[in-house]
Amino acid sequence: GLDPRHADQQVRGVVLLPKGTGKTVRILVFAEGEADKFARDAGADHVGSDDLIAQVQKGWFDFDIAIATPPMMRKVGRLGRVLGPRGLMPSPKAGTIVGEDDLARVIQEARQGRVEYRVDKTANIHVLVGKVSFSTEDLVENMSTVMEAIVKARPAASKGTYIRKATLCNSMGPAIRVDVAAASAMSTV
Questions:
Q1: For the chain, what is the radius of gyration of the CA atoms?
Q2: pLDDT at 189 (0 to 100)
Q3: Are 67 and 29 in contact, with CB atoms under 8 Å apart?
Q4: Contact 142, 129 (CB under 8 A)
Q5: Of 69, 142, 134, which is closest to residue 107 (Cα–Cα)?
Q6: Are the C-beta atoms of residues 132 and 22 closer than 8 Å to each other?
């Protein structure tokens, strides 16, 4: 957890886990024309425009990440009330509104283990760093990458202690307290 004074700060970003997430990611891309072809060639699971927007409006959520090209945001914006609460709304801060030239890279990163982090209203950041089946070395490498990204995202106005507490836990298990100094030292910043 961060110092509670950071709850209203936009500590948010995207980080590429070097050892991946261990999860299969289903990618949806809202695109038309050439961008549609680029997204399909890059291996997106679902690509479309008005057809996909209509499906999502009817309650279809068979995807883990939604990406959109800037021209599509006029139409995709209507899905804000549906996608927003699920954390699936494409946004520039999440790096999910991308030009057609960047579609292949972003789709590939999503497959490799691209995760988003953001501070919530209680000044906590929850982010996936791997699976229990990962080796200790792989988990440490992923966690150090996440810690580095969070330290780099520190707001310029931030004074004093930035990270107060760090814990590591699996989905249904007890939390293990991590030494904040050691966790912060993992980052090379």
A1: 18
A2: 45
A3: yes
A4: yes
A5: 69
A6: no
How far apart, in whole angstroms, are the C-alpha atoms of residue 1 and residue 3? 7
CA distances from 33 to 15, 46, 52, 76, 116 (A): 29, 15, 15, 16, 28
- Cα–Cα distance, 28 to 168 (Å, whole number): 30
Confidence at 173, pLDDT banded by 50, 70, 90: confident
CA 64 to chain centre: 10
Q: Exposed e or buried b for every residue in 18-31, given b needs 16+ CB within 10 A? A: ebbbbeebebbbbb
pLDDT tens-digit map of 23-79: 899 999 999 999 999 999 999 999 999 999 999 999 999 999 999 999 999 999 999
* Tokens linked to 174: 């007890």
Overall pTM > 0.85: no
